[in-house]
């Protein structure tokens, strides 16, 4: 079978990595790149940089990656759907739920694969975490807490930290726990003088009863990407910056120090940091997209799933505005 002809729209901080990986994935041929801002990172190679999505479509594409700012996702995706091109858009799916819904409907009506680049699902630490939860290594899951903090990225200008970063944590939490959100309560802060929020704290509950909490900001001088899952047998800590997964087991030996026993709900047990293959998440994500287009089994994140994540994120900001929790 001939390689899938791929087009890439946008070669900024994320698009440049797509350009590299698309050239390396078996079964895909990168035939065109478009970016109205030109080739700032020098990734075009032998390909001329086209001005817009229409020029990409004229090349005759099978698949496309949309890695432009969020506010442009809908326009590009609808044009690609109308042209019969299977498309993966970077997260979040769109700047609003209404926009995302139009995208879902367009790809559904055309019978095309529409996907969203929620790359954390393909992080090796989180994939190993989900596998071990499914295997019962932690028993019943009680709580999932995430922290995603770091300096402000100057390239983000069209959305706040909720849609840009918190969408990662909302999606990975529902995916790891295999349960949708039931309720969410949010608090936000605007400290940098920009029109969008730069700090978020969100708490809530999944439909399976797991309680969740997310701390997200653009105003920390340190970078942190951590997911903590606590259950009846211990706690998993996944560091998605390094791809490491550590398990803190509940102790199996009774404590004989009465004051410590009274203070602690559980005792400290063995600590294990697992060894497992660590493939580049973007490569695994694009392979999943390729497989979905070819009709093969795939874990690609669909636009329908991306839309559910966006609805929860908008619920966080709505809750912050009203002071009331939002139910789904």
UniProtKB/TrEMBL annotation:
What's one GO MF term for it?
nucleotide binding
The record's section on Pfam families has: GFO_IDH_MocA (PF01408), GFO_IDH_MocA_C (PF02894)
Residue ranges annotated for the Gfo/Idh/MocA-like oxidoreductase C-terminal domain, each copy included? 130-327
Domain named Gfo/Idh/MocA-like oxidoreductase N-terminal: residues = 5-118
SUPFAM superfamilies cross-referenced by the UniProt entry: Glyceraldehyde-3-phosphate dehydrogenase-like, C-terminal domain, NAD(P)-binding Rossmann-fold domains
Q: Which domain of life is it from?
A: Bacteria
* Family, per entry: Belongs to the Gfo/Idh/MocA family.
Protein name per its UniProtKB record? Dehydrogenase
């Amino acid at each position: 079978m001939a390689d899938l002809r791929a087009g890439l729209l946008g070669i900024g901080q994320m698009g440049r990595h797509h350009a590299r990986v698309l050239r390396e994935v078996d079964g895909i041929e990168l035939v065109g790149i478009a970016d109205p801002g030109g080739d700032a990172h020098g990734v075009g190679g032998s390909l001329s940089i086209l001005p817009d999505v229409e020029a990409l479509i004229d090349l005759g594409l099978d698949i496309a990656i949309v890695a432009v700012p969020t506010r442009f996702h809908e326009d590009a995706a609808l044009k690609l759907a109308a042209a019969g091109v299977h498309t993966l858009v970077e997260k979040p799916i769109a700047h609003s739920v209404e926009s995302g819904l139009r995208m879902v409907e367009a790809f559904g009506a055309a019978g095309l694969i529409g996907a969203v680049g929620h790359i954390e699902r393909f992080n090796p630490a989180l994939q190993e975490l989900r596998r071990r939860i499914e295997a019962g290594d932690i028993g019943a899951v009680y709580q999932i807490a995430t922290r995603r903090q770091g300096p402000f990225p100057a390239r983000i200008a069209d959305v706040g930290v909720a849609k840009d970063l918190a969408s990662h944590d909302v999606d990975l939490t529902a995916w790891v726990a295999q349960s949708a959100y039931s309720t969410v309560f949010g608090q936000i802060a605007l400290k940098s003088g920009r029109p969008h929020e730069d700090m978020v704290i969100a708490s809530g509950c999944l439909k399976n009863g797991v309680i969740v909490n997310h701390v997200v900001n653009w105003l920390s001088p340190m970078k942190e990407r951590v997911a903590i899952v606590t259950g009846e047998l211990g706690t998993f800590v996944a560091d998605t910056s390094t791809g490491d997964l550590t398990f803190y087991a509940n102790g199996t030996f009774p404590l004989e120090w009465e004051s410590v026993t009274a203070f602690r709900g559980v005792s400290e047990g063995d600590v294990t940091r697992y060894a497992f293959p660590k493939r580049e998440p973007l490569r695994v994500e694009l392979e999943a997209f390729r497989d979905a287009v070819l009709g093969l089994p795939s874990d690609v994140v669909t636009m329908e799933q991306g839309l559910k994540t966006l609805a929860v994120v908008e619920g966080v900001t709505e809750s912050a505005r009203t002071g009331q929790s939002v139910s789904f």
